[in-house]
Design goal:
The complex is a heterodimer. Chain A is built from nine helices and 18 strands. In chain A, 37% of the residues are buried. Chain B is mainly alpha-helical. Helix content of chain B is 65%, strand content 1%. In chain B, helix 4 runs parallel beside helix 7. Classes of the chains: A alpha/beta, B mainly alpha. At the A-B interface, strand 1, helix 1, helix 2, strand 4 and helix 3 of A face strand 1, helix 2, helix 5 and helix 12 of B. Strand 4 of chain A pairs antiparallel with strand 1 of chain B.
Chain lengths: 438, 294
């Protein structure tokens, strides 16, 4: 079947300067031109100030496919979407799109706060490529979907953030493009609205439309997408059935998901106050391991350096299961460092999760370092490490002798007590039971 | 929770028969080659956006003002009053027999339009950065819509002009028919200058800083507060290279009945034509970088 999207060897570089403003001043250009008037500006060759966001990405998408695009931050996902939605141009390569593209890169961008809901529906619709008569036809449907009919003539600056997002998504969702590009819009809105958005996406795909869905939510990707493309450092690392690619993603890194290190300190997560150096998942024997026995404790270790003294710093870990549910958050409770400003130096902090607490499956750990009052997040590396919790079915875990599916986001081994009172039953019922059994 | 459709989804699920895919791509994405002209097909497809953006501009501008669109009229009227008192009465600038307020107002008409159109469209790309980095549409519509919005203002100020002309019993003749052409000319000139500045302003914010000074200077080298005849004969050759000279004297001639200065108008047409072509080519070359730089 002919593809609806055909991407061939797309590459994109950005020019970056470490201490340079995003835009040049006229003086800089004049000075540069005066210094070397005959050198043509060929940024591609100047490797120190350019970064390749995408190298040679190629893939094809058939009509009706729902494709997930995953990868770590900076893998090139957003750049790819921006190229496909024509916001920015590729440096090399080409892409062919055989259908109208609608993108939900960030809903509500075309809104103007001073204009009313009604006016914004038209403005935003036209900005996204709808015709005026098309908007008029869908107007009532949009208003109904957004649940804002009472506030149609109110300027959107007086809307609550929920109403604002609902209206914006409603306009975008009714664009009815052949190709829908979605980037993390599901991160906004309340749970019921998120559900509505997912339903709308599903609806779109069932009408033979094609969806490109970028997300960090692995469970949404595996549920919604048939096929997933994993990007890493601007290249396609894997492309195939979602469940396989998602597990490739979780296992990527340094061969194991249990260790992440940032050997180049300039690129490690952090700021001028603190930098993350490494994160490890440790088993009981203090060895890095990505497979943990459900009955044994597991340690998460973060190593960071403090570059600027006199701040109270609180390391914290965020645990997610493979469905993207936040299982729990743990913050450093080491009495020695609580409320105590930290001197410059290297720190290694480990949190131990007891055995018989996590449920079986994959646990993805995000690590962060924060300061409170005022809140400053020095770094937050989501998906830093991951490990599998495995039950060997020996009968002494919380499962007991049961081996079937067992839902629940944690699986603590509880203390169970039984009291027994011999003979304290109604004799009539006992004899009735005996009669039935014989 | 959600069952996604299998990869082999037929295109007609739910009874909706999707049309066949076109033979040629609807959108072809590749690096722009230099020398390529404007994408007119795209501009046409998004033509409604031009008016919606202009409408947004006007709506937002007058929404919270008490007098609303009347401001369009008050501003040039006040300016005319100030100039009349200072230059007409105190400095006694010669006017070639035309009442000073009428001379100033007929010049302020194209000038207010031109200066506000250039200022607004020059800053428009930077001001709409949030749109440019998030959604695609032909970028040229942004500076162009700023000019369309000012064109509406120009229409409003014509109403006042009619009042002034009736009051001073200015003679009206067939020359008035040239006026629409002059409006087209000044619009194209504003489009050329505005587009050029808006594109440069993305990369070099200095341009935005320079813009007000530049506009102010341009006012003094145009025959707005004084008639063209005040410029010494030997300087007029150079003076007329200012494309606004032809337009402003043209406005005066059309409205007040003086003979047209065809030489100045011809230079203005030539200048505008070259500028529009250059501006379009430059805009096309740099617009691909807007989202990355702005």
């Amino acid at each position: 079947m002919k593809p609806i999207i055909k991407v061939e060897h797309i590459a994109k570089h950005y020019r970056i300067g470490v201490n340079q403003p995003a835009y040049q001043t006229l003086r800089d250009t004049i000075v540069e031109t005066v210094r070397s008037p005959f050198r043509r500006q060929r940024p591609e060759e100047d490797s120190s100030s350019t970064v390749w966001a995408l190298h040679d990405v190629s893939f094809e998408v058939a009509r009706g496919e729902v494709i997930g695009i995953i990868g770590r931050n900076g893998a090139g996902k957003s750049t790819l979407l921006k190229i496909l939605s024509r916001i920015t141009e590729p440096t090399r390569g080409r892409a062919e799109l055989y259908g109208r593209v609608g993108s939900l890169l960030e809903v509500g961008t075309g809104f103007h706060p001073e204009l009313t809901g009604r006016e914004n529906i038209f403005l935003n619709g036209v900005i996204m490529g709808m015709r005026r008569d098309e908007i008029e036809r869908k107007f009532n449907e949009i208003v109904k979907f957004a649940e804002v009919s009472r506030f149609l003539d109110t300027p959107v600056k007086r809307y609550s953030s929920g109403m604002y997002v609902r209206l914006a998504f409603a306009v975008a969702a009714h664009l009815e493009p052949e190709i829908l590009i979605v980037d993390e819009v599901l991160a906004v809105g309340d749970a019921s609205f998120q559900r509505k958005c997912l339903d709308k996406m599903k609806d779109v795909s069932q009408h033979g439309r094609t969806v490109l869905f970028v997300s960090h939510n692995m469970s949404a990707v595996t549920r919604l997408c048939d096929r997933t493309i994993l990007l890493d450092e601007g290249r396609v690392l894997d492309d195939g059935p979602s469940h396989r690619v998602v597990s490739t993603y979780l296992r990527s890194g340094l061969g194991t998901t249990a260790v992440r290190e940032w050997p180049d300190r300039k690129k490690s997560p952090g700021n001028q106050i603190a930098r993350l150096l490494s994160v490890r998942v440790l088993n009981e024997a203090n060895k890095p391991s990505d497979a943990i026995d459900i009955r044994r404790p597991v340690g998460i270790e973060m190593e960071f350096e403090v570059l600027s003294p006199d701040r109270v710093l609180m390391p914290n870990f965020h645990f997610f299961n493979e469905e993207g549910i936040n299982v729990f958050i743990a913050a450093d409770h080491d009495a020695e460092w609580r409320r105590r400003p930290r001197p410059v130096g290297r720190y290694v902090t480990t949190a131990w999760i007891p055995g018989n607490f996590l449920a079986e499956g994959t646990i993805i750990v995000g690590v962060a370092l924060s300061t409170f009052e005022p809140t400053v997040i020095h770094f937050y590396e989501r998906d830093a490490v991951a490990f599998q919790v495995i039950d060997t079915l020996d009968g002494d875990s919380a499962r007991g002798d049961y081996t079937g599916p067992m839902p629940g986001i944690v699986r603590p081994l509880l203390e169970w007590r039984t009291q027994f009172f011999p003979g304290e039953v109604e004799q009539d019922l006992v004899s009735l039971a005996e009669a039935k059994n014989s | 929770m959600l069952e996604s459709s299998p990869a082999s989804t037929p295109a007609n699920i739910g009874g909706v028969q999707a049309p066949e895919l076109p033979d040629h791509p609807l959108v072809l994405i590749q690096p722009t080659r230099s020398g390529l002209g404007l994408n007119f097909r795209d501009l046409w497809a998004y033509r409604e956006l031009l008016f919606f953006l202009a409408w947004r501009d006007l709506k937002v501008r007058y929404k919270q003002t008490l007098l609303g669109v009347i401001w369009v009229v008050i501003q040039p009227l006040l300016l005319t009053l100030v100039f009349t008192v200072i230059l007409g009465k105190l400095a006694r600038v010669p006017t070639d027999g035309v009442p000073y307020p009428l001379m100033v107002y007929t010049a302020l008409l194209p000038w207010s339009f031109f200066s506000s159109a250039v200022t607004n469209s020059g800053n428009s790309i930077v001001a709409n950065a949030h749109l440019i980095t998030k959604v695609y549409f032909p970028r040229l519509l942004i500076p162009a819509s700023a000019i369309v919005a000012r064109l509406v203002d120009l229409g409003v100020s014509f109403v006042i002009l009619i009042g002034l002309m009736l009051y001073y019993r200015a003679p009206v003749d067939a020359k008035l028919l040239v006026l629409p052409l002059l409006v087209v000319l000044v619009t194209m000139l504003a489009l050329g200058v505005g587009t050029l500045i808006s594109a440069l302003n993305v990369k070099y914010r200095d341009v935005g800083m320079m813009l007000p000074v530049f506009v102010q200077l341009w006012m003094f080298v145009s025959p707005i507060l004084y008639p063209l005849s005040l410029v010494p004969e030997r300087w007029q050759g150079i003076y007329m290279w200012n494309p606004l000279v032809g337009i402003i004297t043209g406005f005066r001639s059309a409205l007040l009945g003086d003979p047209f200065n065809w030489k100045a108008i011809g230079i203005s047409v030539l200048f505008t034509a070259v500028l529009v072509v250059v501006a379009a080519a430059l805009f096309r070359r740099v617009e691909k970088e807007f989202a990355d730089v702005v």
